[in-house]
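Long-time lurker. I teach an intro course on protein structure, and each term I like to show students one example going from raw sequence to a predicted 3D structure in token notation. This year I'd like something fresh instead of my usual example. Would anyone be willing to generate the tokens for the chain below so I can use it in lecture? Attribution to the forum is fine with me.
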Amino acid sequence: MRDNDSATATVAIAVNAPAPAGQDLPTAAPAPARGTLVSRGALLAALGVAAFSLTFPATAWALEGMGPWTVVMLRSVLAAVLAGGALAVFRVRLPERRHWTGIAVVTGGVVLGFPLLTTLALQTSTTSHAAVVVGLLPLTTAACSALRTGARPSRTFWIASLVGAAVVIGFAVQQSGGAPGRGDLLLFAALLVCAAGYTEGGRLARHMPGWQVIGWALVLALPVTVAGAAVALSTEPLRLTAHAIGGLLWLATGSQFLGMVAWYRGMAAIGIHKASQLQLAQPLLTLVWSVLLLGEQLPPAAPAASLAVLACIAVTQRSRG
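-- Reply from a regular --
Happy to contribute to a lecture. Here you go:
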């Protein structure tokens, strides 16, 4: 991760010039094929999704020994220490002034808003239920991307996205007895702020490396998160169990920093709207983790809903635009 790394591919322009007498021109290294770049971007985005799929189970573990405000603030402080250390070691220069507004949106949506709203929601919702509701995030992110960047995915893309969203909404309403509960309202609010943060982060990752995007967003939030952590630790109970510590460490390193690094680089490579639809797989992965790590009993409709939205991924990835 060097200061001049870029999340976007650079293509060298070959210029034919006569070689000096008796000398052969060195052969220029071929630029990576477009298919290779797309495959690499899809892999990075998929790694980000895999990291995010553990977020809800890790949050549930952390909540076993900490209050919700403590979890949210400490995860961001620890991630900021990791990111700030990397920025200092590699002597990364401050972003250009024109990028700070976007970084602030990433801070508000990804660093503060989404973690806080989902952590509060998990006090009344199971991780399996929350995971399927958050299956709406791909559609929300694609819509934000279209509004913010002018991207115009094909009609097939939107149909597949809407089908996945309809399945998710139906599941949420069915599980809440016909009307959204408090946890669902918090989750829907989390979708909106996270989609805005994803869109801005994906856009910025075309101008700077993805790890720097989330790194500066975490550093920007430090005044709020340090003060919030101090208040939360003084007012909320704290019990340092193995689950609580392990969950917090994963949230800080995997969900908040390393997962975001892979995610933003993948979005920059294959496009925000296409990368966002890979997140349709996240509910299924989280459902698996909730059974293996938390021993939850899945609602009968949860696996079917997750598989339905997972089936939409192939359609959105093969669509044009």
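Some talking points for your students: Residues 1-29 have pLDDT under 50 and may be disordered. The CA atoms of residues 131 and 283 lie 5 Å apart.
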